[in-house]
Design brief:
The chain is mainly beta. Helices cover 4% and strands 47% of the residues. It contains 2 helices and 18 strands. The strands form 4 sheets. Strands 3, 4, 8, 9, 12, 13 and 14 form a 7-stranded antiparallel β-sheet that branches. It has a 4-stranded mixed β-sheet with strand order 7-1-15-18. Strands 5-6-10-11 form a 4-stranded mixed β-sheet, with no helix packed on it. Strand 10 and strand 11 form a beta hairpin. 37% of the residues are buried. The N terminus is likely disordered.
């Protein structure tokens, strides 16, 4: 954990222009715009960026997303560019209220599929050629199916996959969760839709998949959720851009919710002791348009 905090501390980055700059002098100027795209048909990758099947004795679902959030966005020119040494474009709010440095969930920006996450005036972006994106995903909220006594129900899962998150109080529907503490990667809370049932838990340490095809030249810290993906065509930004550049970060949700399937029926049945083991996104493909 000390390793994670040390690296994250080095990456603290003031990005007031992301959330605060709305003065008249920015109106109409070209921007670098980031959106998330959630794709259940995209390739399912492992931590090394390789195609991954569901392990024996496990099962998975491709969730239906309500929202997602990130606490860090970086563009890197080369496959040898170390984390934090590229163009850091966004570093979300953090806090020490819970003790160690943690993502401040109360200030997280949560967006839906194909919604704008941030807009950055291009005059703040260093001109250059960028081949890689690195995005630390911190929060997911989605619908999953749960079986109980032979009947399938739909519920909502709040999944905290950031390196460490301070969580105060939050709601899933009418169900309140009072946490008021730091939670390491893998904490989750769940509530059935339209039924009076709610619970929470913690995925095993190190079990969350974080695809990084650059693992041998540009590693990420253990316990983080910095997903790495490359542009098929490098993004070239010059010092005289006239138009917006929209970067779409397509994230694989292909069976991204994974559990131990005790009876091998492909149904998530927590009442039978089946436990969540992985909630990590399964790959990222960045594209851009001008």
């Amino acid at each position: 954990m000390k390793k994670i905090i040390g690296i994250v501390s080095l990456l603290v980055f003031a990005v007031s222009f992301v959330s605060c700059e709305d003065s008249d002098d920015t109106l109409g100027e070209p921007k670098l715009i980031f959106k998330f795209k959630l794709d259940p048909t995209q390739a399912r990758l492992n931590n090394l960026g390789q195609i991954a099947a569901i392990p024996p004795g496990h099962a998975g679902q491709s969730p239906v997303f309500n929202g997602i959030s990130s606490n860090y966005i970086e563009m890197a020119p080369l496959n040898t560019t170390l984390l934090g040494q590229g163009q850091v474009l966004y570093h979300g709010p953090e806090t020490t209220v819970g003790g160690a440095t943690a993502i401040d969930f109360s200030q997280a920006k949560i967006v839906g599929d194909d919604e704008v996450f941030i807009e950055i005036p291009l005059r703040y972006v260093q001109p250059g050629t960028y081949r890689w994106m690195r995005v630390s995903l911190s929060y997911q909220n989605y619908q999953i199916s749960v079986r109980e006594a032979g009947t399938d129900y739909t519920g909502t899962l709040a999944s905290f996959v950031g390196y460490n998150t301070y969580i105060g109080s939050f709601n899933i529907g009418t169900h309140a969760f009072d946490v008021n503490a730091n939670k390491l990667q893998g904490y989750w809370a769940f509530a059935l839709n339209d039924f009076d049932y709610a619970t929470s838990g913690q995925a095993p340490v190190g079990a969350t998949t974080v695809p990084n095809p650059l693992w041998n030249t540009s590693p990420i810290p253990d316990g983080s959720c910095v997903v790495t993906g490359n542009f098929f065509e490098p993004l070239v930004i010059d010092d005289n851009e006239k138009k917006d550049i929209v970067v779409t970060l397509s994230l694989s949700t292909n069976k991204s919710f994974e559990w131990i399937d005790g009876n091998n029926n492909g149904k998530y049945e927590p009442s039978l002791g089946e436990t969540v083991v992985d909630m990590g996104l399964r790959g990222m493909i960045p594209t851009y348009t001008r």
